[in-house]
Structures are given as C-alpha cells and as structure tokens.
C-alpha cells in the first residue's frame, strides 16, 4: 500500500520517521523518493537508491504511473506493516492519483487518549451530513483495544500489589522508629509532652518520610520516562502475538500523563498516613517510667 504523507505533519502524529534504518526519512520536496518497509523491500528485491515503478488507478479512471527512487527503508518490528506499506510525499501521491489538492484520509492524534470519545463526538457533530467518515481507533483496531483493556487490568493489579508492599514497609519502618526511640518518647512524656502532641509528631514524621521518598521516586521515574520516551523500549518479545495488527510494533515510547501519575501518589500518601496512625497511637500510650527504663 502506497501512502502519501506530509513529512512534517506526519512526524508529529506517528513515529514512522524514527524507524528508518537505511537512507533517510521523507522530507518536503522529495517528490521522487519513496520510503519503504524493509520486508516489502526484500519482497520486491530492491535496495536503497534503486527505483520502483508504481501503477494505480487514478481518480479520473485513468492508469497512473510513476517511478520513485528508494530514499529510505524503515523497520518497525511489525511484520504486517513493514511488508505492506510504503510512503511518498503528499504531492507525489496526489499527482499519481490525479487528486489535485484533495486527500483521502486525515489522521488525528490527541495528547490524551481519554479525550478520544469527546473529540469524536465533537467532530461528528461538525461534519455530520457530509461524505466524510469518522472512524475512532477502537473501531479501526478492535484487537488493539482488547490489548489495552488487558494492560489496564494488569497495571491495576500491579499497582495494588505495590501499594500493599509500600504501605507494609511504611508501617514496619514507623514501628521500628517508635521502638528505637522508646526512651526518647518516655522522656518527652515525662517532661510534659501530651500524648496527642506525641502522636501528631510521629504522624508528621511519617508524612515527611513519604514526601521525601515520593519526590525522589517521582523525580527518578519522570527522568527515566522522558529518556525512554525519546529512545524507546524494545518489548518485541511481549508483542510477538500481535504482529498481525498493522502498525503495532514492539518499540514502545512511554509518555507521562497526569491521570496515571497523580492518583497513585495521592493514594500512597493517604495509605501511608493511615498506616502510621497505629504506631503513633502506640507511642502515645507509652508509660513514661517504663519507657525511660527501656533498653
């Protein structure tokens, strides 16, 4: 399948230009070049710099013919995609198919996947009654939607397990701190510190510990995601069963979304405060005399 693209706009919507392994990606004005998948190049027996002839029925019913030099070869790790797709510039495709200034497809990419439904509803309201067909990605790739749902369930389970492990670590840490500082707490109680004040102090220290740990963890995590978002993560072995889905590759470029970062942090902070209440209450109930004698 030969697709005409605007190289500058395409780079903002897809990652195809970053998968070029030989030659270069398409650039504006390169109307005699074609960027072809590695598997398709192998099927056709062409190499970088060689020419391929394309014939297609134009919009006016005539047979359109054009020759393009292979300027770039890409590899996305998707067998179906690399073996079936090639790209030329939009003016080259419009000339081949006698389309003039018309286009057949416009791809829209949103910053947040959660806004897809609202965007689809808005676009349908504006273009309703025309001959334009609007297809959201869920209808275009139902297999991918199933995989995304599965990943959401798995992510929720992993997050729940991590939350349990972290809260257990917090309560153990606070308990150890209370045990090690038993004499200190006994002296404070003997000097007139109220149990309520002691209880608040333990809780505040737990909150401070959580905030510091969260700041370090979020900082390291954001830095890692920003790096991997540019370099990509090779998860080809996990996507082997989905290679038949067009465009789905094993190279993942993670991104940061507030909806996936903020709620876990808030949940962790609340859980940490709640689990610190029991050790704090235990510290507040200490007998000053016995606490001072504690070794």
UniProtKB/TrEMBL annotation:
GO biological process entries: lipoprotein localization to outer membrane
Principal location: membrane
Cell compartment(s), UniProt: Cell membrane
Pfam family, one: FtsX
Domain of life, per lineage: Bacteria
Residues in MacB-like periplasmic core domain copies: 19-125
Domain ABC3 transporter permease C-terminal positions: 157-287
Keywords of this entry: Cell membrane, Membrane, Transmembrane, Transmembrane helix
Topological category with respect to the lipid bilayer: Multi-pass membrane protein
Regions crossing the membrane: 157-178, 207-228, 262-281
One Gene Ontology cellular component: plasma membrane protein complex
Family note: Belongs to the ABC-4 integral membrane protein family. LolC/E subfamily.
Cross-referenced PANTHER family: LIPOPROTEIN-RELEASING SYSTEM TRANSMEMBRANE PROTEIN LOLE (PTHR30489:SF0)
Name recorded for this polypeptide: ABC3 transporter permease protein domain-containing protein
Species the sequence originates in: Ralstonia pickettii (strain 12J)
């Amino acid at each position: 399948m030969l697709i005409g693209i605007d190289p500058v706009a395409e780079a903002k919507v897809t990652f195809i230009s970053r998968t070029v392994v030989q030659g270069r990606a398409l650039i504006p004005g390169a109307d005699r070049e074609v960027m072809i998948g590695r598997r398709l190049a192998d099927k056709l027996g062409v190499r970088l710099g060689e020419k391929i002839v394309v014939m297609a029925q134009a919009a006016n019913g005539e047979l359109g013919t054009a020759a393009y030099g292979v300027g770039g070869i890409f590899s996305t790790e998707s067998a179906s995609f690399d073996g079936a797709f090639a790209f030329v510039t939009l003016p080259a495709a419009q000339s081949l198919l006698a389309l003039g200034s018309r286009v057949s497809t416009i791809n829209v990419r949103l910053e947040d996947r959660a806004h897809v439904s609202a965007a689809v509803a808005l676009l349908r309201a504006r273009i309703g009654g025309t001959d334009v067909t609007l297809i959201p990605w869920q209808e275009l790739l139902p297999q991918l939607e199933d995989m995304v749902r599965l990943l959401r369930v798995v992510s929720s389970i992993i997050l729940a397990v991590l939350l349990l492990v972290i809260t257990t670590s917090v309560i153990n840490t606070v308990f150890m701190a209370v045990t090690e500082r038993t004499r200190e707490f006994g002296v404070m109680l003997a000097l007139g510190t109220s149990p309520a004040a002691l209880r608040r102090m333990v809780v505040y220290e737990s909150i401070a510990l959580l905030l510091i740990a969260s700041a370090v963890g979020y900082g390291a995590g954001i830095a890692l995601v920003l790096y991997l978002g540019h370099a990509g993560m090779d998860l080809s072995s996990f996507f082997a069963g989905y290679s038949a889905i067009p465009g789905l590759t094993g190279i993942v470029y993670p991104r940061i979304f507030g909806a996936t970062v903020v709620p876990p942090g808030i949940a962790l902070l609340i859980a940490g405060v709640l689990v610190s209440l029991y050790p704090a209450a235990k510290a507040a109930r200490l007998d000053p005399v016995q606490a001072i004698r504690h070794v």
